[in-house]
Amino acid sequence: MDKYIIDGGEKLYGKIEIQSAKNTVLPLLAASVLTDEPVKIRGVPMINDVENMLRILTEVGCKIRRQKDCALIDSSGAASHEIPTRLTKELRSSVFMLGSVLTRFRRAKISYPGGCDIGLRPIDLHLSGLKRLGVKIVEKDGYIHCEADRLVGAEILLDFPSVGATENIILAAVKAEGITVIRNAAKEPEIVDLQRFLNVMGAKVRGAGGGTVVIEGVKRLHGLEYTPIGDRIEAGTHLIAAASCGGEIETNGVPSENIAALLHKLRENGCKIYTKNDRIILISDGRLKSVNLVETMPFPGFPTDLQAQYSALCCTAKGATLVVENLFETRYRYAAELKRMGADITIRGRTAFIQGVEKLHGACVTASDLRGGAALVVAALKAEGQSTVMDLSHVDRGYADFEGKLRRLGAKIRRIRV
Ligand code: UD1
User: What's the rounded Cα separation, in Å, for the pair 163 and 187?
Assistant: First the structure.
């Protein structure tokens, strides 16, 4: 498996264009089977999760063409209601296919989805929401069989504002009879983008971003061309790297309100941050002070997908930081690897106590999930000496040309293809 060799200690300078958000592109790809007409999505990042989603679409009968950074999806020949098991195991977002395939065929069969190993990640909220819309669900032999003679709008209250459950229910409700109301819906910017996409297709969805989403079922949806929002997690990762290493970078493609919680912390750490429209400029001298507490929360709180990278930054900040992970149970597997680089981290359940050290040193470390892998890269960029980050398959799931973008900012990073 590929690995990175990183010579740490360089400051980062320059501008980077942010890719379209992985977490938007995946549900939008699933949504493209809601229509027979062609769908064109621009700025689709070349990452493994997207490639796997495109494979799933192909296996259910869609025709896919890649044209530069665009994906063209023609679902007119979609014929299968079975989501292929092999790919479902690779990609948690395959679960979105449930909502859209149900809308299209009134039935769907899927195995339990995979994805990053960061906790239990149940899908009970997805399933109970679908049941409220009239879907009969039978779990048998490791498969979930869903069937609905009719999909009928309903009031749904989510016990927790799950991003995936909110998106899945929206996808199942867009062509249902009557009105669906999702209360305690997730408020993430990716939900707002899904709403915008569906409304351009002719759907009637409102309220996304505000906690209550109202979906008025329509008879028909049509094709479209669409550019998704920028990836706030990719932008956040680069901003954290530059904050930790020192330097001055500008990200283009993500409005500051989409990562306000991170920017707030980075300012407390001592960085200077300027924002205008979709641009964020960060200036850091690389000598940060700790913030006392960082707790992950649903949006607009601090994103769990930046917890690992931010914790890597805390390792060399002056003072101690308490990190609390409220979303996923086992999202600290990277911590043992950071300790190999000299980090002082104590984990107790969902809490990490990080005592900042003078410096980290280079080491051979192994990524075990997507954002944990990015955290190891952030730490290696700051560390003294050379590091090897093994097993890039995880990082490749979410970052397109990660090393190229970092190299253009001045980092000494190269990929060794194995
Ligand atoms: C999405 C993101 C992921 C991010 C996460 C939280 C995508 C493709 N992935 O994942 O990158 O880390 O939001 O911001 O958009 N839960 C249940 N039952 C359910 C569903 C969720 O108990 O049916 C729990 C989960 O275990 C977790 C919490 O709810 O503790 C949040 O999960 P959720 O918001 O659903 O995350 P994902 O949609 O899987």
Answer: 8
The pLDDT tens digits for 266-311 are 999 999 999 999 999 999 999 999 999 999 999 999 999 999 999 9
- Measure CA of the first residue to CA of the last residue in the chain; give whole Å: 5
C-alpha 304/C-alpha 119 separation (Å) is 12
Predicted pLDDT of residue 88: 84
**What is this structure's pTM?**
0.96
Instruction: Give the residue numbers marked as catalytic.
Output: 116
Q: How far is CA 198 from the centre of its chain?
A: 20
- Supply the Cα-derived Rg of the chain in whole angstroms: 21
Sheet architecture: strand order including 320-324: 293-295, 320-324, 351-355, 344-348
Exposed, middle or buried by CB within 10 Å (0-12, 13-18, 19+), for 300?
Answer: middle
Distance 162 CA to ligand 1 centre (A): 5
Domains located in the chain, CATH noted: 3-19+230-416 (3.65.10.10), 22-226 (3.65.10.10)
HSE value, Cβ hemisphere, 13 Å, CA-based, for 143:
13
Q: Residue of the nearest CA to atom 28 in ligand 1?
A: 327
Show the ligand 1 pocket: residues with CB < 6 angstroms.
Answer: 23, 26, 92-93, 119-126, 160, 162-165, 186, 190, 304-305, 327-328
pLDDT digits (tens, 9 = 90+) for 171-201: 999 999 999 999 999 999 999 999 999 999 9
Give the number of the atom of ligand 1 that is nearest the alpha carbon of residue 119: 26
| Segment (H or E) for 85 | helix 85-90
Instruction: In the chain, count H helices and then E strands.
Output: 13, 23
372 Cα–ligand 1 center, Å: 17
Q: Alpha-carbon distance 294 to 323, whole Å? A: 5
The CA angle 269-327-122, to the nearest 5 degrees, is 160
The string of DSSP codes covering 244-291 is: HH-EEEEEES--GGGGHHHHHHHHHHT-EEEEETTEEEEEE-S--B--
